Amino acid sequence: KKNVLIIGAGGVAQVVAHKCAQNNDLLGDIHIASRTVSKCDAIIASVHEKSAMKVDGVLQGHALDALDVDATSALIRDTGSQIVINVGSPFVNMSVLDACIATGAAYIDTAIHEEPGKICETPPWYGNYEWKKREICAEKGITAILGAGFDPGVVNAYARYAIDTFMDTVTAIDIVDINAGSHGKYFATNFDPEINFREFTGTVYSWQSGAWQENEMFEVGHDWDLPVVGTQRAYLSGHDEVHSLSANYPDADVRFWMGFGAHYINVFTVLKNLGLLSEQPVTTAEGLEVVPLKVVKACLPDPASLAPNYTGKTCIGDFVKGIKNGQPVEVFVYNVADHAEAYAEVGSQGISYTAGVPPVAAALLVADGTWDANAMKNMEELPPAPFLTQLDRLGLPTRVKDENGDRPWNA
Ligand code: NDP
C-alpha cells in the first residue's frame, strides 16, 4: 500500500479523489492539498456523500502553495505519501516534481508545465522543462510519469498498444478528441479558461514528414467518422502528446485533432480578435490595470458548475496507420464516456472524468510495482496492457475498431 497526495482541488482533482477513495484498499491514506483548503474540504465532503471510501481510512485536506518546494516536500514527508498525483494548475508542475525528487515520492501529472505569462509553450514541449529532469530522476530512482490524463495520457497508451498489436511499422497517429456533449450555456470552457484558451491562441504544431509543421488554429479541418457520436469535424491543434509520440515514433506523422462546433469557433474568434484573450495587462480610462483573459475568465461559467446539467458523450481515440506483413493496416482505438454517468458517479462532468480516472489507474500500477519505473517516463514508454485493464475496471473501457469489427480491446 502506498499513501497518495493529490495536488490541486479543481475539477480533475475531484475525480481523482473519488477514484482513489474507491480504491483506498489498494492505495492507503489519501491527502488532498491545494491553495484554497475549502475546495479540498468540498471534495472530501462529496466523497463521503457518495460513501466512496472502499475501506475505512484517512482522507484529509491541507492548505498548500505548491510553488513552494520546501512546503510541498514537508507535506509529502508529514503525510508519508509515496505517490503524488499532481492535478493542480500546470504552473506548479516543476515545483511539485522537485519536491518528489527531494523526498523520493513517485510523481504523476496530466499536462506539461507552463510558465505564467507565456501564451503557450512551443515544441519541444517536454524538452522545455520536464525532460531536463530526466537524468536526475534516473540517478535518484524517482518514478515520474508525465502526462497521465486522457490526452495526453490514455491516447499515448492507445498508440503504443495499436502499434505493438497490429503493425510492424507505424506511419501515422491521428488523435481525435470529440466532446459531443451539451452543457446548455451560451459559451463555456470545459476546464480553466486560461489554460483552455492558451491551447488555441498560438501556432498549431504537428509532426509530419519527419519535421515540425506550423499551421493556424482552425486552418485545417477534417470530418471524422466515429462510433456512437457520428461524423464530427475536428481541427488540427497543438498538444503535448504530439511531442513525446513524435520523439518515440519519429517516422510516423503525429497529429492532434480537437472537435469544435461553429458556435464555439465564432465566439472564440470574436474574443481573440478583440484582444480579450490576451494575458498582457491593459489600463482602463479609470486607471485600472486589468488582464483581459482574467476578466473573460471571471465572466464565464465556472467549469465545475457545468456538471449537473451536462448531457451527451465524448469520444476520444487514435486512428493509427501502419504496415503489417507488407500490407497497409488501420485501426481506431477509442473510449466513449458519458457526461451524466460521470456526474452520477463522482459529481463531475465527462471531461474531468476522462482526465481524472487515468492518473489513478497509473497510481495503482505504481503502487503494485507494475509501473514503478524508477525513472521519468511518458505514457507510451510504459507497458499499455496493465493500464488498459485498470481503465476497464475504473470506468473508461477501451474499444478497437478496424476491418474486423468494433470490439473491446481485449476481446
Ligand atoms: P482547475 O483549474 O479546476 O484546478 C486547478 C487546481 O490547482 C485548483 O484547485 C487551484 O487552486 C490549484 N492550484 C493552482 N495553483 C496552486 C498553487 N500554487 N498551489 C496549490 N494549488 C494550486 O483545473 P482542472 O482540475 O481542470 O485541471 C487540472 C490539471 O489537469 C491541469 O493541469 C490541466 O491542464 C490538466 N488536464 C489534463 C487533461 C488531460 O486529459 N490530460 C484534461 C483536462 C485537464 P485554487 O482553486 O485555489 O486556484
TrEMBL record:
Residues 4-145 form the Saccharopine dehydrogenase NADP binding domain. It comes from the Bacteria. Gene3D superfamilies: Dihydrodipicolinate Reductase, domain 2 (3.30.360.10), NAD(P)-binding Rossmann-like Domain (3.40.50.720). SUPFAM superfamilies: NAD(P)-binding Rossmann-fold domains. Residues 149-394 form the Saccharopine dehydrogenase-like C-terminal domain. It holds the Pfam family Sacchrp_dh_C. PANTHER family: CARBOXYNORSPERMIDINE SYNTHASE (PTHR43796:SF2). This is Carboxynorspermidine dehydrogenase. It comes from Loktanella salsilacus.
